[in-house]
Amino acid sequence: MQAKKYPAVGKCIYCGAEEYAPGSTRRFGDEHIIPDGLGGRLILPEASCKKCERITNQFETPILKGIFHVVRKQLGIPSKKKRDPDKVTYVTELNGKLQYVTVDPKDYPGIIFTYTFFRPRILDGQPLLDDIIGCGMAGGGIEGLNWELPPEWFQGGTISLPPIRKDASALNLMRMLAKIAHSFAVAEGKIQSVRPLLLPLILGDDLKHAWHYVGGTYEEKPPRTDELFAMFLKDEVSPDGKRYLVADIRLYSHISGMPRYLVVIGEYPSDLLRCEP
Ligand SMILES: [Zn+2]
Description:
Blueprint: E1 4-5, E2 29-32, E3 42-48, H1 50-65, H2 69-74, E4 88-94, E5 97-103, E6 111-117, E7 135-141, E8 159-160, H3 170-187, E9 195-196, H4 199-203, H5 210-213, E10 214-216, E11 229-237, E12 243-251, E13 261-267
Helix pairs in contact: 1-3
The structure holds zinc ion (ZN).
């Protein structure tokens, strides 16, 4: 995907705030539709208030520093923070002692593990259920890097791939995908056509129904692409006859094995509601 700067919004695309912060005249924060830290180059200027910036950072940061921590360095994605070290550290337990080993990213196995999801339930006309996230793991292998784990990793017992972060959760990845999909629909001028469905998940007001709206194509192994990302919007009709605006998102789709995500952004108004003469 090419770098693109969309027209400025001038209000918060998540909560609707008309000021960056209460009483502030500062302009709204620019939104990187795909996070800057992943190398995303689609920018929606002046689109997020201070409060929502904090909320979206809270779920993006664990995913960038968890799932994507090593691969970002291996791909040479520049980091905004100078303190973010170029090396990566892994932990092994040898004879009951934890050892921290720091290596160059290119000497670290070129493997990325991420979550893969079933289809969003809403697209199959399923009822709203609480607390269910169906996910699996997908592994991708980076071309040109060693895919094997170093033998010393197996000597002493357990190994943790760095950095293990419990908050690099499926739910946080789903919220990041929801944010990408919603902001992309705003940028592309599509959000006005639908009743938006993702805001309670993005803002943390409803975390129980993530899988209803955010999912993927669990078993499909999509082909790798030349670009780092592949993303487009499409319409889908569910078996119960409702029409939805859906984002099809692939992150680091140039790495073989990376999954496809489907995110249901909004529902089109029903034709039945239209007054017929
Ligand atoms: Zn806001």
